[in-house]
Specification:
Blueprint lengths: L5 E16 L3 H10 L2 E16 L3 E5 L6 H8 L7 E6 L8 H4 L3 E5 L11 H12 L3 H15 L14 H13 L5 E5 L7 H18 L2 E5 L3 H7 L2 E6 L2 E7 H7 L4 E7 L4 H7 L5 E7 L2 E6 L6 H9 L4 E8 L2 H10 L7 E3 L2 E3 L15
Parallel strand pairs: 3-7, 3-8, 5-6, 6-7
Antiparallel strand pairs: 1-2, 1-4, 8-9, 10-12, 10-13, 11-12, 14-15
């Protein structure tokens, strides 16, 4: 049963593909010509999703977890094998023409703009498709320009744009008709820091001023921390966590970390120094060591005292644990996922180690 304030409603959403199994070697290739073998691959496996109006939700998981496949079903590009979906009151793949007036979609690896014509001409075509008045069109161009700096390349063909300019244009095209829902699949992939900051600010403004609901899938976890209060983690097509970022960190048992720069010391030295304490050590870069822990159970002063006794420490920083480290450990299976909460529903955690058969859809 849908809630009145739900914009995205999915129940038991499943997508199965028929995959061709290739045999190895010349003999195998010849056999493939005459007799092919197929297997069923479940890219998305019974996902429930409930997103309210105005939410920005980060949808994350390792490569092959099923993120892009989910987005494509929600956008009406793919038809689910089973389950139910309603977005903005529509069944995406059944009511496509009416539905597309209420959503925007940006795929970071593909363009929705016309390749050989100027950006403004692509936007003018969308104006006609969506029946946008001239007044509204000009107001929206002004709004986009204020944050994205759109006017400097409006009259440049898409094929001549830099990647950053193209992605800013893609966002303008996706939001030109003020959609209720925006689906973003890797919108900042390959962009520099300055362009990413502009895009994040633009998305925050769209969400704040227009109440646009945003579902964001990305491997850039800075996007998640900058934009989302809620995160959904999937692995092997199944949802393994749905709740707040802080809840994810706290459920894993640590929210603070000490970052130490020390020459001539190894990871094992620090692990031995804090043996018996619930401290998770990692070495994100050479000569830099991070100790993640729960400050309620581990005293910072005592941890530093132990570390200073065994290694020539050059620099120490105390900071909150970043979502990147948390998610990396979930993917690697070094930590189990805690109970996640979405609305009034809870999801029990499952193991999330991405095995060799995990490559099944985005």
């Amino acid at each position: 049963m849908e809630s009145p304030d739900e914009v995205i409603h999915a129940r038991d959403l499943t997508k199965t593909f028929r995959a061709f199994t290739r045999r190895e070697g010349v003999a195998g290739a010849i056999r493939n010509l005459f007799r092919r073998e197929y297997r069923q691959v479940r890219a998305v496996d019974g996902i429930d999703l409930s997103i309210r109006e105005g939410e920005i939700v980060g949808y994350i998981g390792p490569n092959g977890a099923g993120k892009s496949t989910t987005i494509k079903m929600l956008a009406g590009i793919l038809v689910p094998s089973s389950g139910e979906v309603r977005v903005a009151g529509y069944v995406p793949w059944k009511e496509r023409e009416a539905y597309t007036h209420h959503i925007g979609v940006v795929f970071g690896q593909r363009t929705s703009l016309w390749w050989d014509i100027a950006v403004i001409e692509s936007l003018r075509l969308l104006q006609k498709i969506y029946r946008i008045s001239e007044r509204d069109f000009q107001e929206r161009i002004e709004r986009f320009d204020a944050v994205l700096g759109l006017r400097e390349y409006l009259h440049t063909p898409t094929r001549k744009l830099s990647l950053g300019q193209r992605m800013r244009s893609e966002l303008a095209a996706a939001l030109i008709h003020d959609p209720k829902v925006l689906f973003l699949d890797e919108p900042t992939i390959g962009l520099d820091v300055a362009v990413k900051a502009r895009i994040r600010e633009f998305l925050r403004e769209a969400n704040r001023e227009l109440r646009t609901t945003i579902l964001l899938t990305t491997h850039d976890l800075d996007d998640i921390e900058a934009l989302s209060h809620r995160v959904v983690v999937i692995d092997r097509g199944r949802k393994i966590y749905d709740g707040s970022l802080e809840g994810l960190k706290a459920g894993l048992g640590y929210t603070r970390q000490v970052r130490i720069r020390a020459e001539g010391a190894g990871l094992e030295v620090f692990r031995r120094a804090t043996a018996g304490e619930d401290v998770q050590w990692s070495e994100p870069e050479p000569a830099v060591f991070c100790a993640a822990f729960d400050p309620e159970r581990v005293r910072v002063a005592e941890l530093l005292q132990r570390v200073l006794a065994v290694a020539p420490v050059k620099d120490v920083t105390i900071e909150d644990v970043g979502i990147e480290q948390v998610v990396r450990e979930i993917y690697e299976g070094t930590r189990s996922v805690p109970l996640g909460v979405a609305g009034d529903r809870a999801f029990e955690a499952e193991g999330s180690r991405a095995g060799p058969d995990a490559g099944r859809g985005g």
